[in-house]
Design brief:
With 78 residues, the chain is mostly helical. It has one domain. Helices cover 64% and strands 0% of the residues.
Length: 78
């Protein structure tokens, strides 16, 4: 609960987006992903594989994402 509060208070989100609830939902999703990491492990592995394959198929192997929220499904570039 304290972790969520710290994320909520320190995230540099514009006031308009805060009013729309984007920050709150992002913090809740991050918290939920921590609580459910074991149950979500298979899904996250599959999602990362699909994203990595899509990156490989694009010109130069580069990809960008504009999805809001935490990036737990984004594969690392290493």
């Amino acid at each position: 609960m304290l972790t969520e509060l710290v994320h909520y208070l320190t995230n540099p989100v514009p006031r308009a987006l805060r009013r729309l609830g984007y920050l709150r939902e992002s913090v809740l999703l991050l918290s939920r992903s921590r609580r459910c990491r074991v149950a979500w492990a298979g899904h996250l592995t599959a999602a990362r594989a699909v994203i990595a394959q899509a990156c490989e198929e694009t010109a130069g192997g580069l990809s960008s994402s504009s999805a809001p929220g935490c990036s737990t499904t984004c594969p690392s570039t290493s």
